[in-house]
Amino acid sequence: MTEYDLTQKVTPFLDSHLVLPLLGFLRGDSVDIYAKADVLKAELDVLQKTKMQDTIIDVYKVVNKDSQVPDEMTQERDEIKNNIANLLKTCKPLMDVLQDEQTVKDLRTNNDFSLSNIKGVDISVLDSFYSLARLKYQTGQYEDAAAMLYDAKLLYQAEQGIEAQDKAYRAAWGKLASEILASIKSGQWDVASEDLNELREIIDARQFDSNLQQLEHRSWWIHWSLFVFWNHPNGRSGIIDQFFLEKYLSVIQNSCPWVLRYLAVAVVINKRRRSQLKDLVKVIEQESNTYSDPVLKFLANLYIKVDFEGAQSELPACSKVLANDYFLHSFVADFLENSRVFIFESYAKIHKVIDLDSLSQRLGVDVTEKWVANLIRNARYSAKIYSDEKRVVMAEQSPNIYQQIVERTEGATNRSNILQKNVLNLEKRLKAQTVKE
Known about the structure:
By secondary structure, this protein is mainly α.
């Protein structure tokens, strides 16, 4: 594995179906890390852990150059079809009810959506329905699986007993995975985002056998969340809000420090969240002996070592890292633009006179007067640009009280919003528990 690709670190925390988009990306023409044939073989290995038999057979033919498909593959395809048919018969009473939209709406409105209020349906029928939903997911029918797992989750939650609650919990994971994979195709991420937040609340409230087990489940959640955070319109703020929470930052530092790459990029490209930069740099410094890559090295050189040349020298590597990362490849331009702004702002703080030619070399781009003027104005610096001499003279900068107030207000607002959401969600859970009792 190269430092440009985290696939081998990330995939152990993902379901096999969620690994497939990453491998498909690595096999694409825009990525040049591994031989395409090797990626295709890895893709076949992952596919064989699923029940997507038609896809498995197609990829097998490509990998093995149209050689004869083993009889076991076609036999397993037939077995899967028979299992689906049998499960459909077994859970038909429940499916008939769920297909009646008005009945379902009335049951949910009156908080009566439970097995005790559905005639002819018992826990064995629900178990068959859940098995069918899982089989739909395993065969790649993600939209159908999402709808079924949602109903299964609610019905299990209404039941008493540890086994039913465990199945409800597993159904919540399956629902999230299904929504993620369906959203990759549709481009609509709102439902996946809601499921992600709900699952986080369940994990935070759930009683685990040990702290280590809870850490493992939070690690899984963190990796699954990357799909949502890097695709949802508000995801770049969401990842900052969530990953800077002490209990999740602790998981990242102890279990998966490579996730700091994603947190770092989110902070760099999010102009409204610059107030988190100091916290990020502290974490990078703490984890410098555990994990590092060009993105983290860039920030360490700039803000810890104050090495402008070292920071600039990391930008080409950062560009390659992001371009070859499934989650970050769409943000290369934003990252480079904001990184150069960071270099200029840091450079301007300790230099009274700035030579534009020298600045161009440090940034690795042709610096124009207009570009510098915009930066000075946005940063609220006092400075003069001398065009003939190609230099900028910085006036003594007084503390920017306005910016400090804005940053502190944004930080307080974000924390208040998270606290408000947690309180509302807690009220909902307590109300639902009271109704159930």
